[in-house]
Structure formats: C-alpha cells, structure tokens
Amino acid sequence: MLTVRPDTSLDPELLAAIVREQGTPTYVYDARILDAGVRRWIEAVGDPSHICYAVKANYNLGVLARLASHGIGFEASTVGEMARTLAAGVQAGRIVLGGVPKPAEAVAEGVRRGLDLVVLQAQHEVEAAVRAGDSLEGPPARVGLRVRPGIRAGAHPSLETGRADAKFGFGPAEIPATWAALAGAKGVEPTTLAFHLGSGLDSFEPYEGAIDVLLGLVQELASAGHRVRELDLGGGLGVAYGGTGTDLEPADLVRIVRERLEGTDLAVRYEPGRSIAARAGTLVTRVLYRRERDGHPALVCDGEFTDFGRYSLYGAQHRIEPLEGTLEGSDTVEVLGPTCESGDKLGTDRPLHGVRPGDLLAVRDVGAYGFVMASNYNARPRPAEILVDDEGWKVVRERETLEDLWRGETVD
Ligand code: LLP
Questions:
Q1: Cβ-based burial of 311 (10 A; exposed 0-12, middle 13-18, buried ≥19)
Q2: Which residues participate in catalysis according to the annotation?
C-alpha cells in the first residue's frame, strides 16, 4: 500500500533549478508542507498553544519562524535550542524547556526567562529550579516532572526513552516526594507530569499504557492534596519513510488521549517534531560515479552520512529518487557517500538502476533530524538550507565556507 501523500514531494524541476545555483548537497524545505503538518495538529488538538514543536527536529531560523506564524509553542531541550527559538522571534512565554538531561545553569536560565514551562527530570534539576525560583521577583515559574513510565515504545532501541532502564526522568515511585518538594518552594509552581516515550513510534498502544501510569500518579498526588493541571505527552509519532505504510495521525492520538482522560480536567500538551517537519525536507545530492561492490551496483554521491546520518545511525531507509527520468527495472543499488568509512551510506536496496554519474538524487522526508545532525567530519562544509513557498525559494542558511571550518582556531 503506497500511502505517501502526493503533496509530500518537492517538484523535481524546482529542485534541479535550486541546485544549479546552490550546488549539492543541499537541503530544501517546503514551507507549505510544514504548514500542512502544523495544521493537522491544530485541527486535532484545537488550541495551538498546546502544541509545542520539538525544536531539535529542525531548528533553522526560517523554519522556526514559519512554524511560529501558526501560533504554536516550542519545546527546546537545551539553552542553545532556546536561544535559537528566541532568535527566530518567538516569545519566551511560548517556549517549554523540555525534560531531557540538562545542567543546573540551563534550568536556572529557563526559570529566570519566564518560559511557559520547565520540565525537570533529575534531582539536581529540581534543586536548581528551586534555587532559581527563590530569587525570582515576579510570579512563580511553572515546572513539570518527567516520568519514566517503564513502557517499551517499539521504536529503534536508540530512540526508546520511556523504558524502566532509560536515562531520562523520575521513576513513578519518586514522583510524590519530588512534587511535594516543589509545591513547598516559593518560586516555582508544579503544574505538569510529562513523558516522552521515544521517537518513530508506529502504534498508539504505548501512549495508552503510559497515560495510565500518569493518571495513577495524578490520583496519588491528589490524595496528598496536590493538583496536577496538565499532562505533557512528548512527541513520537512515526513517519513511514520507505514510501509504504502509514504515518501516525495526530487526530488518532488525540482521540485516544481524550477517551483515556474523560472525566478529568487535565490539560494536554504535545511535543511533535518529526511528524511536523520530516515530510517537508529533501536532500539533493549528485552522483559522482558508479561502481560494483561485491557484485552489486553502488552509486557514490557527494552527499554523505555527515550530511544525513539516519541510515548509518538507525538503518532508516528513506525514499531516494532520481530527479530526472524514471525508475527502470527492478534491480537495486546501494547509495554511498564518499568518506573513508564503509558505513557511509544514505540507503541500500534502492531501485535506482538507471541512474548515471552526474545525475541528481532526491533523498526524501529528511526535514526532521537531517541537517541538525550534520557534522563537519572530514572537514566538509555543511550543506545550504533552502525554504520554498508559493512566492519562490530563498536561502535560509548559506552553505558553510572552508573558512567557517576553522573559525575560532589558532595556530600559535
Ligand atoms: N519531546 C522530547 C522530550 C523529545 O526528547 C523529543 C525527541 C520530542 C519531543 C520529539 O519527538 P518526535 O515527535 O520528533 O519523535 N535523532 C533521532 C530522533 C531523536 C528524537 C529525540 N527526542 C532520529 O533521527 O530519528
């Protein structure tokens, strides 16, 4: 079953025109697909402020500004992501500092800045929040606690974060005492229980079990006289990258959540990253040459695992299509990068038999966790980033120059 939406592939002619000017490899994002991704969430959830886009998925300032125009919130997991979001013009009151491990200074910065919410996930973070809250002049800072519900998300093992052995969050048994400590502090106000189960989920079942864990805690806290106002369910909705299967739909998640929470007055916050940004991005790369590897044809491209690492890291098979011509035959090829590592691949078993040196390839659905994970290994400048909308296209990040590679270094 092919369920890739027809609106999810940037037009090959436009991509070819862009790289004629900008060179390869280049990331191209379609703002209209970003818009559609956000709208699907807003239609499902209602209030846009309950949707906090996970900035780590794609934090190009042009992308953040476009997403912000929909009135949604943002989840930043580091001071750097928070600074980028502010630099894109988002008000501090629309930003959540998310529940990933962070130094005490980051927590203090979040509390001082008047963010919408700061999610704490370890004892030292709680202590830092209480200390920073003590010296606040204005209203107390809203804080939440990330729970490790002990649920397997069924995602790639590297991307599962809610298991009992995960490094994130408090075990359920630690929550009552930790919440009570926050409730007793003057400069912070605990409002939220949070989880993030993992990324790239292909079923809603894990959410159901994890919500039940949170509901149990809400009741336990209530019996001790504490009110939980909100659940933050993190991100996680998977995208069917290979071109077959279905993306998980926000509306289905929201329906399940509402059923589960019926009869409560809990507000719900979502932190989607991939499900908003992935489909909007394409990486355009040029084939340098063709070679046989162990009797199998392979294409060596100028885009490599330092530009796009999801195959090397997780074995993710993204659609890879030629920009010109059609796919002929059923023979498959490997798509490799040029670095000095055999694991440098963009994909394997791709039906690209007719592709020749000099041809352009489009690696699809790379708008989330693409450029943000690129590195300068082998002293290669990182690609340009382009944003396309109805008006045309613009460079939202220039390709790095060689001089950029040693900025700040000294020789004596
Ligand atoms: N909230 C929190 C606290 C998170 O840690 C994450 C992702 C999200 C929300 C957004 O999750 P999403 O809706 O995008 O699944 N580099 C990996 C993905 C790592 C995601 C980590 N946390 C990849 O390329 O698949």
A1: buried
A2: 340
DSSP string, 233-297: ----B---TTSBS-PPPHHHHHHHHHHHHTT---EEEB--SHHHHGGGEEEEEEEEEEEEETTEE
| Residue among 52, 156, 196, 275 to mutate when testing ligand 1 (max atoms within 8 A of CB) | 196
C-alpha closest to that of 234 among 192, 202, 264, 265: 192
Question: pTM (2 decimals)?
Answer: 0.96
- pLDDT tens profile 347-381: 999 988 889 999 999 999 999 999 999 999 999 99
The pLDDT score that the predictor gives to residue 77 is 97
Amino acid making up residue 182: L
Q: Does ligand 1 come within 6 angstroms of the Cβ of 279?
A: no
Domains, in order of start, for the chain: 98-271 (3.20.20.10), 279-406 (2.40.37.10)
Q: What is the pLDDT of residue 1?
A: 30
Q: Which residues contact 408 (CB under 8 A, 6 or more apart)?
A: none
- Look up residue 105 and give its two tokens: 């200074």
Look at residue 404 and give its three-state secondary structure.
Answer: helix
Residues of the chain with pLDDT under 50: 1-7
**pLDDT, tens digit, 9 for 90 and up, residues 380-395:** 999 999 999 999 999 9
Comparing C-alpha atoms, which of 81, 34, 73, 77 is closest to residue 52? Answer: 73
Determine the residue type at 44: A
SS3 348: strand
Sole residue written with tokens 């790379």: 366
